[in-house]
Automatic annotation (TrEMBL):
It comes from the Bacteria. InterPro entries: Glyc_kinase_flavodox-like_fold, Glycerate_kinase, Glycerate_kinase_RE-like, Glycerate_kinase_sf. This is Glycerate kinase. Belongs to the glycerate kinase type-1 family. The lineage of its organism: Bacteria, Bacillati, Actinomycetota, Actinomycetes, Propionibacteriales. The keyword Iron does not apply.
Length: 363
C-alpha cells in the first residue's frame, strides 16, 4: 500500500513539513510496511519556499532584507533551474509585526527578495503572497525595485499621504525579460468594501478608524499608479503586494496550483492508494482555496480516497463529503486541546497512528 501525505501547515504550531513528518511517523508505527510519500503543501503564504524546497530540491540562497518596521530579517530564495521562488511573508509577514504599528509597516524587503532572485540570472520569478502584516499596497516592493513618487514609498501606508505621482517604469525595467508570477489564492481588490484594508486590516492591528483612513490612502495611491489594476482580483493579496506585482506585469495563479504543479501532485496522487492531508482547522471555509480542499479535488479526479487530519474539525459528515473528504479526524478530540498545543508533533503522530489502523490494508 502507498500513502501520500500532503498537509498544509497547522498555523501557530507546525509547519507543513513538520506536519507531514509527524503524520508519516505515526503511520509507520502502525503500518511499517506501507510506502509513505511526503508532499507538504502551501498556498503561497508562510512556508511557501520551504514546502517547495522539500519536494523539488533546488538551491537556497540566503539573504538579509529589510523587515516591515525597518530592521533586517533573514530571507530565502529558492532557485530551481531558471525559476526562482520568493515568499513575501519572510519579509513582511504578520509574525514579524505582531500586529504592532501597522500604519508604518512596509513591504520594501519583499522587493529586495525579488532583487535577490533576479541576481541569480533566472528567467522566471514566482512570488508567493500571503500572511502579511502590512497594508502598504506593495509600495515598498516597488520602491526596492526602483519606483519613485512624490512621497516616500517605503514608509508604510502612512507614508502615502498626499501621493499624486508614482513612476513605476524603473521597477518594470528591473524585470525586463523576466516572467513574474503572483502565487496567491486571495482574489480581493486593493481597495473598497472587500479591499486589503477592510478585509484583512483588523487582523494586522488596524482599528476601525485606521481601516477607513488606510483605505483612503490606498485609493489615492491606486489612482496615482493605475486605478484599473487596483480593481483586479488578487490586487489586495498580502496587503497590496499583489497590486504591486500586477503593476509589474505579473500573471496571477492560485498558489496551491503553483505548488501542486511544482511538486507533481497529480502524478503522486495517482500513484497512491490513499491521500492524507491536513490543516489547523478544517471547516467549510476550507473550500476557499485552502490546501485540504485542493488536495481532495485532485484525489477525486484520480478516484483516490482522501482523508484529513486537523487540529479541529468543524464540519459535519455531509459538509465533509461536499469538501471531497472520505474522513476527517480532529487532534483536539483525540488528545485534548492542551496537549494538542503543547506537543503538536507528538500528538499528531499519535492521531495518525490511530487513523492508520482503519485505513491500512491488512490491519
Amino acid at each position: 500500500m502507498r500513502v501520500l501525505i500532503a498537509p498544509d501547515k497547522f498555523a501557530g504550531t507546525l509547519t507543513a513539513v513538520q506536519a507531514a513528518e509527524a503524520i508519516a511517523e505515526g503511520w509507520r508505527r502502525r503500518a511499517p510496511d506501507v510506502e509513505v510519500d511526503l508532499a507538504p503543501m502551501a498556498d503561497g503564504g508562510p512556508g511557501f519556499v520551504d514546502v517547495l524546497h522539500a519536494s523539488t530540491g533546488g538551491t537556497i540562497v540566503e539573504v538579509w532584507v529589510r523587515g516591515p518596521h525597518g530592521g533586517e530579517v533573514p530571507g530565502r530564495v529558492l532557485v530551481v533551474g531558471e525559476t526562482a521562488y520568493v515568499e513575501s511573508a519572510q519579509a513582511c509577514g504578520l509574525h514579524l509585526t505582531g500586529g504592532q504599528e501597522p500604519r508604518r509597516a512596509g513591504s520594501f524587503g519583499v522587493g529586495e527578495l525579488v532583487r535577490a532572485a533576479l541576481a541569480q540570472g533566472v528567467r522566471r520569478v514566482v512570488l508567493g503572497a500571503g500572511g502579511s502584516g502590512t497594508t502598504d499596497g506593495g509600495a515598498g516592493l516597488l520602491a526596492a525595485l526602483g519606483a519613485t513618487a512624490d512621497v516616500p514609498l517605503d514608509a508604510g501606508p502612512d507614508g502615502l499621504a498626499g501621493v499624486s505621482q508614482v513612476d513605476v517604469a524603473p521597477a518594470r525595467a528591473a524585470l525586463d525579460g523576466v516572467e513574474l508570477v503572483l502565487a496567491s489564492d486571495v482574489d480581493n481588490p486593493l481597495t473598497g468594501l472587500f479591499g486589503a484594508a477592510k478585509t484583512y486590516g483588523p487582523q494586522k492591528g488596524l482599528t476601525e478608524p485606521d481601516v477607513v483612513e488606510v483605505d483612503g490612502l490606498l485609493e489615492a495611491y491606486a489612482h496615482a499608479c493605475d486605478r484599473r489594476t487596483s480593481l483586479e482580483p488578487g490586487a489586495g493579496a498580502a496587503g497590496g503586494v499583489g497590486f504591486a506585482a500586477l503593476l509589474l506585469g505579473a500573471t496571477r495563479r492560485p498558489g496551491l496550483d503553483v505548488v501542486a504543479e511544482a511538486v507533481g501532485l497529480a502524478d503522486r496522487v495517482r500513484a497512491a492508494d490513499l491521500v492524507v492531508t491536513g490543516e489547523g482547522a478544517f471547516d467549510f471555509s476550507s473550500r476557499s482555496g485552502k490546501v485540504p480542499y485542493g488536495v481532495a479535488q485532485v484525489a477525486v479526479e484520480a478516484l483516490r480516497p482522501c482523508i484529513t487530519l486537523a487540529g479541529q474539525v468543524l464540519v459535519g459528515s455531509r459538509e465533509m463529503r461536499a469538501l471531497g473528504m472520505d474522513g476527517a479526524y480532529a487532534l483536539v478530540d483525540a488528545v485534548g486541546e492542551e496537549r494538542a498545543f503543547a506537543e503538536p508533533a507528538v500528538a499528531l503522530a499519535e492521531l495518525a497512528e490511530r487513523v492508520a489502523r482503519s485505513w491500512t490494508v491488512g490491519e
